[in-house]
């Protein structure tokens, strides 16, 4: 099938590459010329395991192309996926300017029937706005008869596992309407996703608004589980319990399950923070206050400061003359994405309290440097207190303590004798509970996990 993907970021590039892998003829559009140039020169603009190979293979096979040519992109696909960003607006709502700009472009150039797929995460009711934007452009061209239908097909992939998640989805959610155009869209979407449903049916067909809502409900539920565990972890620290033991104890109940119960130094990324806010905002528009989600957000804001608070409790308010090593900068492992990363909050707190920091991340160093420079745009001198280490051990040299923010595999079993030898004090603040408190105690390391105070 001929497919167009509008927006070649995390979701658009993965969707385009994976649909090409299934044999479709895919045209990826982006307004960012530099991204398109990287892709056309054989590179990829993001770090995502396995993606480079899929892109290369399908480009070579002539099934995957990248361009900034809007008219050609609209002409290409009978199915047009909108996968542009929906960042938070000042009031927390999802900013739909990119989605609506993409919709208007479709209306401006389309000739013949199109299925327009909202793949971006968009608030309930957005399909109606996309429909209106396209219809408006068609009317301007005197082409109000040209058929199209807008469907909602939210994406559930996780960064760092995006190709695997896309190729082996738990479920595919598709919302369409019951008009003749909606039925035609249903048939085309069914054909497109048929390869995913071969062994068992994974697609949930529903109305458009329910599909839009499902995406926010999923992210809000996952964020709620994390904040719930983080709040309990903070209490575990006070009462002398181990949140890891508690996690096993409750996760073994199949009604609860083990996933997404890891306490830590807060959730980040481009999705949970913005989607929780956007759902709260939608509720407010309908005169409802989502009390649980408000608390989820507050707990997460607090949690991003928990490592900083532990450092201050141990080393004092004034950290001048102190140096801290930080392992892990990306918001999670296997990505170089720094959006809403907890590391930014910790670096900010330490540096503004007078400390210097030496940071290391296996893949996010370049992106971290770019982002931290912007974070300290108000005072470039503060940015100079950050040094970017070549490897984890180099980051430790002369540091008073180590803080771990991202649970990269490479940090899981370091040589603790070397760690102790490199640090001025054998102190580890572990924001992702990578190590066992007993092992740390036996190694002579002063260890502060999240909710693991039973032995410290
Ligand atoms: P992104 O910022 O990585 O990519 C968006 C791309 O769209 C950019 O390259 C931008 O240049 C391009 N763009 C903007 N306006 C355009 C236009 N009019 N025409 C063509 N291209 C345009 O964003 P992302 O992380 O891929 O997220 C996209 C959407 O998918 C968001 O709504 C997000 O919430 C959702 N989502 C993201 C993830 C994820 O893991 N990142 C997972 C599921 C859903
Ligand atoms: C999340 C969802 O998991 C995806 O299903 C969804 O498609 C995506 O958002 C989206 O809508 O964009 P992602 O943000 O890539 O995916 O990463 P997650 O693995 O969900 O992690 C998000 C944050 O939560 C990370 O900072 C991670 O460290 C934190 N986390 C996760 C915890 O603190 N504890 C956990 O138990 C799990």
From TrEMBL:
<dbReference type="InterPro" id="IPR017476">
    <property type="entry name" value="UDP-Glc/GDP-Man"/>
</dbReference>
<keyword id="KW-0560">Oxidoreductase</keyword>
<comment type="pathway">
    <text>Nucleotide-sugar biosynthesis; UDP-alpha-D-glucuronate biosynthesis; UDP-alpha-D-glucuronate from UDP-alpha-D-glucose: step 1/1.</text>
</comment>
<dbReference type="InterPro" id="IPR008927">
    <property type="entry name" value="6-PGluconate_DH-like_C_sf"/>
</dbReference>
<dbReference type="Pfam" id="PF03721">
    <property type="entry name" value="UDPG_MGDP_dh_N"/>
</dbReference>
<dbReference type="InterPro" id="IPR036220">
    <property type="entry name" value="UDP-Glc/GDP-Man_DH_C_sf"/>
</dbReference>
<comment type="similarity">
    <text>Belongs to the UDP-glucose/GDP-mannose dehydrogenase family.</text>
</comment>
<protein>
    <recommendedName>
        <fullName>UDP-glucose 6-dehydrogenase</fullName>
        <ecNumber>1.1.1.22</ecNumber>
    </recommendedName>
</protein>
<dbReference type="InterPro" id="IPR001732">
    <property type="entry name" value="UDP-Glc/GDP-Man_DH_N"/>
</dbReference>
<dbReference type="InterPro" id="IPR028357">
    <property type="entry name" value="UDPglc_DH_bac"/>
</dbReference>
<dbReference type="Pfam" id="PF00984">
    <property type="entry name" value="UDPG_MGDP_dh"/>
</dbReference>
<feature type="domain" description="UDP-glucose/GDP-mannose dehydrogenase C-terminal">
    <location>
        <begin position="325"/>
        <end position="437"/>
    </location>
</feature>
<dbReference type="InterPro" id="IPR014026">
    <property type="entry name" value="UDP-Glc/GDP-Man_DH_dimer"/>
</dbReference>
<dbReference type="Pfam" id="PF03720">
    <property type="entry name" value="UDPG_MGDP_dh_C"/>
</dbReference>
<keyword id="KW-0520">NAD</keyword>
<dbReference type="GO" id="GO:0016491">
    <property type="term" value="F:oxidoreductase activity"/>
</dbReference>
<dbReference type="InterPro" id="IPR036291">
    <property type="entry name" value="NAD(P)-bd_dom_sf"/>
</dbReference>
<dbReference type="InterPro" id="IPR014027">
    <property type="entry name" value="UDP-Glc/GDP-Man_DH_C"/>
</dbReference>
């Amino acid at each position: 099938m001929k497919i167009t993907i509008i927006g070649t970021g995390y979701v658009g590039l993965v969707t385009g590459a994976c649909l090409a892998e299934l044999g479709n003829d895919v045209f990826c559009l982006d307004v960012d010329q530099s991204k398109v140039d990287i892709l056309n020169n054989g590179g990829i603009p993001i770090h995502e395991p396995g993606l480079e190979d899929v892109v290369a293979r399908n480009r070579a096979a002539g099934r995957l192309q990248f361009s900034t040519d809007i008219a050609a992109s609209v002409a290409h696909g009978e199915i047009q996926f909108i996968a542009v960003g929906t960042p938070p607006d000042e009031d927390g709502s999802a900013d739909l300017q990119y989605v609506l700009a993409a919709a208007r472009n479709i209306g401006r150039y389309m000739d013949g029937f199109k299925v327009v797929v909202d793949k971006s995460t968009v608030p309930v009711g957005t399909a109606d706005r996309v429909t209106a934007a396209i219809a408006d452009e068609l009317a301007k061209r005197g082409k109000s008869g040209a058929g199209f239908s807008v469907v909602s097909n939210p994406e559930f992939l996780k960064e760092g596992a995006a190709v695997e998640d896309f190729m082996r989805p738990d479920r595919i959610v598709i919302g369409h309407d019951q008009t003749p155009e909606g039925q035609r869209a249903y048939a085309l979407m069914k054909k497109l996703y048929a390869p995913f449903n071969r062994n068992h049916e994974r697609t949930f067909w529903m109305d458009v608004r329910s599909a839009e809502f499902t995406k926010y409900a999923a992210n809000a539920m996952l964020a709620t589980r994390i904040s719930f565990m983080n709040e309990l972890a903070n209490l575990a620290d006070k009462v002398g319990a181990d949140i890891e033991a508690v996690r096993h104890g409750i996760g073994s109940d199949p009604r609860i399950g083990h996933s997404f119960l890891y306490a830590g130094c807060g959730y980040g990324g481009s999705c949970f923070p913005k989607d929780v806010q956007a759902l709260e905002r939608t509720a407010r528009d309908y005169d409802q206050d989502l009390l649980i989600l408000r608390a989820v957000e507050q707990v997460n804001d607090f949690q991003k400061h928990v490592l900083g608070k532990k450092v201050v409790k141990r080393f004092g308010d004034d950290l001048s003359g102190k140096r801290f090593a930080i392992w892990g900068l990306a918001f999670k492992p296997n990505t170089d994405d720094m959006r809403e990363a907890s590391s930014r909050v910790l670096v900010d707190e330490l540096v503004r309290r007078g400390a210097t920091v030496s940071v290391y991340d296996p893949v996010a160093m370049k992106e971290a440097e770019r982002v931290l420079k912007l974070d300290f745009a108000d005072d470039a001198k503060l940015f100079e207190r950050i040094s970017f280490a070549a490897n984890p051990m180099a980051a430790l040299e002369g540091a008073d303590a180590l803080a771990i923010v991202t649970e990269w595999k490479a940090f899981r079993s370091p040589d603790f004798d070397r760690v102790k030898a490199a640090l001025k004090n054998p102190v580890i603040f572990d924001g992702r509970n990578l190590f066992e408190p007993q092992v740390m105690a036996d190694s002579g390391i002063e260890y502060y996990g999240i909710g693991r105070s039973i032995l410290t």
